User: Which sequence fits this backbone?
């Protein structure tokens, strides 16, 4: 394989990995930026989106768990992937709104540590409930039949079609959310609220309504990440908490409250990860053939550390202290 | 009946008791000044009226245009006709001048904010009218508000308040940090707003500047009203001025 085609492949894989981080980070970031709410349960929304997607799109046989014990080992609506892709965001949007109302809102005035304890606890509860119901073993989430298999691309050759779809779906969703925030009155209120919530209220705006919507949108994007990422990643109860760390790193390196920052941060992380996974140092004359895949997680922390040393507010974060 | 009336208002930040039985009234059409030293409780008084929290008003009544507004949400008080030009201006630095002004419209497009209890005040200015009032803002229309000079930011903060349905405009130290000739311009703007019929409650540490344009004055010290009278009376009351205002 030529160097160029390998680079292109690394880039595409990086975009796809990054796309999942972007979907998660946008919600985290705007919720943190506007509501100053630290939501460690954001990964749980991904987890719920993932399992809801699995159950809607196909029939799955779970080898263990309470449901199997009660004789419901094989369950699922089998409505197909597209149905999951449409239903899950709506479902998780509603879940997000409920979460804002009953979990987040009573804790807005509490210290960050309280919010973290609360939401992290909630994330663990969600994870354990999924484990109890469906067992801890990994499941197979089938790719949509209409996007299975490779697509022949110039330069690269065969490339998994679904990965391209993930990039495309993410791009469309990001553009929609970006337009909503940049070009509508709703977005104007949210952007103003990010800077000074009380002043927005003093102008006569009941900001709790746009904020509920922000929470719902953030949640829905996390749910979408679960569905589109499902066929590409591991499906088990711990994925929600596992993905939380890279999602937070994405927010932090991109800059709090910035959508463009979340996109940039996600792409940097995704490409770094994909580079380290696929790249190996080969020097035949010395007999060296070393793959960097084991270093991929270390790599994303390292790059985050470097970026934060140079720009503590994140790449596109504003200089002002948001707290 | 006064437009705004505070009767025995006690306000707290957490457990610290800041305002002690503050009573004051603002008559329709006048410029009323609330003066006092650093930390006297001036901002706390305005925040209590505006419905900003904290402080918490635990005792007393605040009545606006005959309707009790004590403890109401800030957005409701704003929609009812009280606007605030806050301390340090608090314009939205990352938004453009036009967006800053447009936010007041966003609120007013809303239909069901207030219940029926307080009438919606006179319609606020349109953006065009604000630009006529402060031509400087029109030139800076699409500029980020954070890049404006201090004086222009103050104009924006006042312009934003003018767009609200304002019966009563409260200004918290509008001259703070401004150069003398800018102070004059802001003072002139305040007089024009007053001439147009809006009632003003002006908070200042700079007593001389405030006495100049005010009809009536209150002096607050350690959360208590210690003087009430016309600007003329305060000008002649050397003891009060020296003791509480240091001038
Ligand atoms: N958020 C707060 N929490 C606790 N105490 C506060 C808070 N804000 C103000 N205070 C205290 O309340 C008292 C009155 O403050 P306030 O801001 O009303 O004074 P002020 O008259 O506006 O002063 P300045 O001229 O400096 O603006 C002060 O002693 C101040 O320390
Ligand atoms: Mg003050």
Assistant:
């Amino acid at each position: 394989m030529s160097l160029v085609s390998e680079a292109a492949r690394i880039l595409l894989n990086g975009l796809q990995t990054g796309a999942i981080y972007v979907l998660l980070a946008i919600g985290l970031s705007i919720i943190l930026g506007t509501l100053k709410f630290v939501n460690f349960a954001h990964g749980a929304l991904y987890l719920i989106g993932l399992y809801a997607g699995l159950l809607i799109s196909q029939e799955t046989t779970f080898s263990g768990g309470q449901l199997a014990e009660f004789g419901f080992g094989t369950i699922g609506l089998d409505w197909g992937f597209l149905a999951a892709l449409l239903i899950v965001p709506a479902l998780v949007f509603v879940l997000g709104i409920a979460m804002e109302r009953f979990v987040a809102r009573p804790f807005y005035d509490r210290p960050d540590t309280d919010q973290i304890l609360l939401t992290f606890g909630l994330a663990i509860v969600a994870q354990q409930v999924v484990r109890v119901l469906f067992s801890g073993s990994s499941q197979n989430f089938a790719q949509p039949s209409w996007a299975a298999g490779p697509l022949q691309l110039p330069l690269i050759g065969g490339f998994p079609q679904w990965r391209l779809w993930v990039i495309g779906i993410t791009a469309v969703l990001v553009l929609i959310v970006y337009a909503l925030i940049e070009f509508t009155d709703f977005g104007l209120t949210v952007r103003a609220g990010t800077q000074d919530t009380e002043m927005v209220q003093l102008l006569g705006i009941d900001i709790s309504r746009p904020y509920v919507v922000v929470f719902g949108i953030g949640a829905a994007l996390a749910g979408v990440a679960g569905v589109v990422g499902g066929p590409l990643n591991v499906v088990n109860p711990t994925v929600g908490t596992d993905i939380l760390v890279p999602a937070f790193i994405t927010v932090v390196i991109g800059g709090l409250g910035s959508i463009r920052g979340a996109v940039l941060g996600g792409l940097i992380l995704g490409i770094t990860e994909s580079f380290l996974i696929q790249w190996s140092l080969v020097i035949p004359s010395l007999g060296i053939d070393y793959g960097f895949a084991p270093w991929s997680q270390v790599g994303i922390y390292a790059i985050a550390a470097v970026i934060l040393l140079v720009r503590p507010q994140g790449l596109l974060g504003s200089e002002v202290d948001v707290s | 009946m006064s437009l705004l009336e505070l009767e025995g208002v006690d306000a707290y930040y957490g457990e610290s008791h800041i305002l002690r039985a503050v009573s004051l009234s603002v008559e329709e059409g006048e410029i009323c000044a609330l003066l006092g030293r650093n930390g006297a409780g001036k901002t706390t008084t305005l925040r209590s009226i505006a419905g900003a929290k904290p402080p918490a008003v635990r005792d007393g009544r605040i009545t606006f245009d005959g309707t009790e507004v004590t403890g109401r949400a800030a957005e409701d008080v704003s929609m009812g006709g009280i606007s605030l030009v806050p301390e340090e201006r608090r314009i939205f630095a990352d938004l453009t001048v036009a967006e800053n002004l447009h936010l007041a419209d966003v609120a007013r497009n809303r239909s069901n904010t207030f219940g029926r209890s307080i009438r919606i005040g006179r319609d606020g200015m349109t953006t065009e009218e604000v630009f006529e009032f402060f031509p400087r803002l029109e030139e800076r229309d699409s500029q980020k508000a954070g890049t404006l000079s201090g004086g222009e930011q103050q104009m924006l903060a006042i312009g934003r308040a003018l767009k609200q349905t304002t019966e009563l405009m409260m200004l918290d130290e509008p001259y703070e940090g401004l150069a003398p000739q800018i102070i004059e311009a802001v003072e002139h703007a305040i007089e024009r707003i007053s001439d147009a019929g809006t009632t003003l409650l002006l908070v200042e540490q700079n007593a001389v500047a405030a006495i100049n344009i005010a009809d009536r004055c209150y002096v607050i010290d350690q959360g208590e009203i210690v003087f009430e009278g016309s600007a003329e009376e305060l000008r002649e009351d050397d003891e009060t001025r020296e003791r509480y205002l240091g001038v």
